[in-house]
Amino acid sequence: MTTLIQNGLVVTATGTLHANVVVDGEKITAVVDRSAPVPQADKIIDATGKYVLPGGIDVHTHMEMPFGGTSSADTFETGTRAAAWGGTTTIVDFAVQAKGTGLLATLDKWHAKADGNCSVDYGFHMIVSDVNETTLKEMDACIAAGVNSFKMFMAYPGVFYATDGEILLAMQKAAASGGTVMMHAENGIAIDQLVAQAIAAGRTDPVHHGLTRPPELEGEATSRAITLAKVANCPLYIVHLSAAQALAAVAEARDTGQNVFAETCPQYLYLSIDDLARPDFEGSKFVCSPPLRPASHQASLWAGLRTNDLSVVSTDHCPFCFKDQKELGRGDFSKIPNGMPGVEHRMDLLHQGVVSGHLTLPRWVEVCSTTPARMFGLYPRKGVIAAGSDADIVIYDPAAAQTLSAATHHMNVDYSAYEGMPITGKVVTVLSRGRLVIDGETYVGSTGHGQFLDRGLNQYLV
Ligand code: URP
Ligand code: ZN
Ligand code: ZN
Which of 98, 133, 145, 414 has CA 20 to 30 A from 351's CA? Predict the structure, then answer.
């Protein structure tokens, strides 16, 4: 079965091209300039006036993740379907090592959750929360099993937190084995003192989640992670970077040529601590870590995306319903489960960045698809419209108007962090490995179509 996507503007990380795209089975077989004769095909999709993009790749999601006494509300089934609605055709989710358990047993557990349940392709990173001899040995086995990125936490003492010594050991192991360490960089030891002081003083509203996690403590932890990575000679990827101080540390390291990379997320580009301060416990909807910052940080983050000191935009999709989940923290912000929904809206929110003049069209594709593919060993199978690549294709209408809302989104969560926000642009068609998944206003995909991706190495390392 061949499909011809005709008359669209193909957007890649390097530019735009008026071209027809031919798909045969699961692969793109040709990208033909529109001045050339039109190829024959069994099925034609007309993309006149639309962009033709490589499918979005969200390398930071948490489907059905146990956290804070509850579990994130999207399953692999609901979460990957919502991703597809928003033009994301690959996710890389986090398997979570519980203390006292092994990495391989953890990986098996996450395979069992995802296998047969996904609408789009998926890979895994591994959260390392228990550094010991077995863990360090099993990092090699994870790499052999297609999982070569290991997230560690300088935050959440008693849960995921690792000491500097443990981080150094894991970094040395990753460096020797071809892995990348991903870091949640916040000084959790200092933060816990500020949290205890706030609760003791009766400052219990959600805004205090933000006020007890100051940007300086993200900047400090980011610098420390960079130093540890330098000593271990380990590639480092800073996740969910939110603060100008942390970005400055990343930029300084990159200027020296160190293998340090960073991502930010739409919530840090569009939302702020003012949202955390919304009355009547509404602020709990915006509790995530690192927290939303004063709006003054946003200009630095957009600039970082332009200069490539921030090279990826992921969502850190970790949804908890307002009712019964966020409400666990009424009267004590430290008990609000940390995380926000977003997997469905990353492509739209970053296209809004193009509309507003923050990013160019190719840069939109680069930070949302091509660089994530290269960073996490999926390129050129994913992340590009080219002959030989998987036919993960999004047809995007840049002129459509939509309003983000929980009433219309497909994520399994009872609120939208962007309720009422007008967006210019909308996904109209999505193909995953050549298979139609979204057709206008209809989901036509199937649960179980999504396959596990055995990922290669980070392609930015020299
Ligand atoms: O608040 C957040 N970010 N929740 C998800 C877990 C993490 O730290 O990424
Ligand atoms: Zn994190
Ligand atoms: Zn996360």
Answer: 414
Q: What is the mean pLDDT of residues 365-393?
A: 98
50 lines ligand 1 (CB under 6 A): no
pLDDT at 166 > cutoff 80: yes
> Could you give the count of Cα atoms lying within 13 Å of 66 in the half-sphere of its Cβ?
13
Q: What is the pLDDT of residue 300?
A: 98
Nearest CA to ligand 1 atom 2: 339
Residues with Cβ within 8 Å of 359's Cβ and at least 6 positions away in sequence, in order, are: 302, 305, 306, 350, 353, 367
Q: Is the dihedral of CA 97, 81, 314, 214 positive or negative?
A: negative
pLDDT band at 68 (very low <50, low <70, confident <90, very high): confident
**Which atom of ligand 1 has the smallest separation from the CA of 239?**
9
Three-state secondary structure string covering 307-364: HCCCCEECCCECCCCCCCCHHHHCCCHHHCCCCECCCCCHHHHHHHHHHCCCCCHHHH
Distance in angstroms (rounded) separating the CA atoms of residues 76 and 126: 16
Q: Is the pLDDT of residue 431 over 90?
A: yes
Segment 146-166 mean pLDDT: 98
Q: How far is CA 301 from CA 102, 207, 209, 292, in A?
A: 37, 22, 21, 13
Give residue 273's pLDDT. 98
| Residue identifier of the C-alpha nearest atom 3 of ligand 1 | 289
How many other C-beta atoms lie within 10 A of the C-beta of residue 454? 13
At 163, list the tokens.
């000491």
DSSP-based three-state secondary structure for 394: strand
Q: What secondary structure does DSSP assign to 231-284, as a single string?
A: HHT--EEE-S---HHHHHHHHHHHHTT--EEEEE-HHHHH--HHHHT-TTTGGG
Model confidence at 462: pLDDT above 80:
no
Residues paired with 439 in a beta bridge: 429, 442
- Residue 438: pLDDT over 80: yes
pLDDT of residue 52: 98
For a substitution probing ligand 1, which of 61, 286, 316 has the most ligand atoms within 8 Å of its CB?
A: 316
